[in-house]
Amino acid sequence: MSSNLKKEIAELFAGWFNDDLKYKIRTAEKIKHIQRICHGLALKSGWWKPEDTQDPKTFAVKLCLIHSEISEAMEGDRKGLKDDHLPQRDMREVELADAVIRIFDLAGAYDMDLGGAIVEKLTYNQQRADHKLENRAKEGGKAY
């Protein structure tokens, strides 16, 4: 990793690593904003009907659609493919973007606080013993 990239990462996450609550709140709010955009565009495009969230199967179906995007990313990676619609990009990159868009859309449909959950989960994971490099390097530690 170049020194410039290390510096950029350090500056970007300074608020995070210093446990700056305001920084974390702003991060959660930015994620919520993107979530609203993704769901709003899906609504506008007709991917949701008002009664959809009342059907208990809808959430499961939408999860399967997210999974399909992940599978497409894997296929693009396996075959080293470029995307059909955005040929300047790798298929794996575009399909991961599709998965994130679908996740944000789903969270928006169910009025979830995905941004808050992500911030809380990242904070929690920093404290987990099994996520620390020295413990992962030990015999029986998480290799990946």
Describe the protein.
The protein is an all-alpha fold and 144 residues long. The chain has a domain at 23-112. The protein is 69% helix and 0% strand. Helix 3 (21-44) packs across helix 5, helix 3 (21-44) packs across helix 6 (114-127) and helix 4 packs antiparallel against helix 5. The chain starts with a helix and ends in an 8-residue tail after the last helix.
List the helices and strands and how they pair.
Blueprint: H1 3-12, H2 14-17, H3 21-44, H4 56-79, H5 91-109, H6 114-127, H7 133-136
End-to-end Cα distance: 20 Å
**How is the biggest beta sheet arranged?**
none
Net shape: globular
Number of strands: 0
Instruction: Flag low-confidence runs.
Output: none
Number of helices: 7
User: Secondary-structure element sequence?
Assistant: HHHHHHH
* Overall mean confidence score, pLDDT: 91
Structural class: mainly alpha
How much of the sequence is in beta strands?
Answer: under 5%
Radius of gyration over C-alpha positions, nearest whole angstrom = 18 Å
Query: Could you estimate the helical fraction of the residues in percent?
Result: 55-70%
Concise overview:
This protein is 69% helix and 0% strand. It has 144 residues and is mainly alpha-helical. It has a domain at 23-112.
Name its key features.
144 residues; mainly alpha; 7 helices; globular
